[in-house]
Amino acid sequence: EQPLNKQHIIMLPFMAQGHLIPFLDLAYNMLNHNQNIIITIVNSPLNINYLCSAVSKHAFPTSQLHLKSLPFNSSDHGLPPNSENTDGLGLTQIIKLFTASLALEPAFRGFLSDIIKGGGSPPVIISDVFMGWANEVAKDMGIRNYSFTTGGAYGTAAYCSIWLNLPHKNLVTGETYDQFHVPGFPDTCRFEISQLHQFLQAADGKDEWSRFFQTQISLSMESNGWLCNTVEEIEALGLEVLRNYVKVPVWCVGPLLPIKMLKKNVGWDTGYGLIGQRSGKEPSIRPENCIEWLDAHPEGSVLYISFGSQNTISETQMMELAKGLEESKKPFIWVIRPPIGFDLKGEFRPEWLPLGFEDRIGKQGLMVHNWAPQLEILCHRSTGAFLTHCGWNSVMESLSQAVPLIGWPLAAEQGYNAKMLVEEMGVCVVLTRGVHSRLEKEEVRSVIEAVMDKSEDGKGESMRKKASELGDMIRTSIEMNKGSSYKAMNDFMSTIISRSI
Ligand code: UDP
Fold this sequence. Notes:
By secondary structure, the chain is an alpha/beta fold. 41% of the residues lie in helices and 13% in strands. It is built from 19 helices and 15 strands. Helix 5 (133-141) crosses helix 8, helix 6 (153-165) crosses helix 16 (414-425) and helix 12 packs across helix 17 (441-452). The protein is globular, with a radius of gyration of 22 Å. The protein binds uridine-5'-diphosphate. Residues 17-18, 21, 278-279, 306, 308-311, 335, 371-372, 374-375, 391-394, 397 line the site of uridine-5'-diphosphate. Uridine-5'-diphosphate binds at residues 17-18, 21, 278-279, 306, 308-311, 335, 371-372, 374-375, 391-394, 397.
């Protein structure tokens, strides 16, 4: 039921961990800014369970934040039972999940029409860029819809433009697969085919992936405005391109991270639970044990390795990564899961790592199976670099803590994020791309050594300096009444709150 004196905001994230988490953070952020709203996040039943578990860890007034599940049965869409987000799904199944997400529409429509019939001021929708169909629903019902991209500006602009234009399939004179122009980007900014995810490399405009993304992105571009999980000051080029491209207002309301992470001098020592997990997933190691392990290492000495919530690497790559790590002799925390082609939720087999690896590394490394308390690790002063797939949440989490990156983009817009982190920000070195690349242990060792090198005029130092400047900008952006993201959020809230309230 909708209290008549509050603006109702309906949020519709895409069905993936990396989308649900920032949507929830956006909800908290909006509630912090304005008490005159109520929010309902809608999704499939299992994802609502995830959110429920995440919400239960926050002390937020539940009267203002509601969760609503819409009926969804993954088996109806050729997916394994209980597959309601991308966790554990292979590529061929992921496209089924994308297509299956369209099936939420009738129940979403019904839910909205009940709210509208209930009276009060019309609700406003904030939908995922991948759920462009919500914009059509909004138009049919005469209400406003805003699109939220959980990515950054540069990555989102590249992702949208490449899907809609397929520039690598339409090379013009002077362009090659490793030197092509993406409409909307300056001519000097050339892209390479290996920066595109494998299903996009193969897309021809008629395949299932193209049909899904071209339709959903085009629909989202007709919404009333876009919200972006970034900070105005850190992505000048990306924002210029995105704004020119989508042609509707773009509000930068990032970083959507737990506030404790962003306040200076508030680190781990404030106690577990204050930063807290962003997701509803339980880490496979007690955060206290992770912290204890980090406490025993010098400042900035530990490499953290994780490929996000849904990606993994190949068996041969895993072997070379392990060997390179061991030879680098640097301390590391590695979030490890079965390699590509194996059940991601299945048992981990010792033969995927060099013989005797775990015994030999002893105190040098901490292996965490499946899921680690990432925020706590990145906030710890011993963490000196992050080997990441460059998922946007991981990027923002890392930069907010001034931790430089080693990039290994695997999917989605991660290749463009990595490109920007290298070319525009100077805070990243790309180790390799994708799951088919040949990776040698020597490269692993030399990249780790360069990034973690402490010499004053070395590459590592210049990356740390830039990461530290970006970290300052990110944390300043949320300052009350002054920061750019704070002001953008206020502006967005006054735009969406109906005049009649
Ligand atoms: N994450 C985590 N523990 C892990 C792996 C990931 O807490 O072991 C969190 C991470 O902090 C981030 C999210 O999961 O908030 C991953 O989002 P990202 O955009 O980086 O990548 P995606 O999973 O969407 O590919």
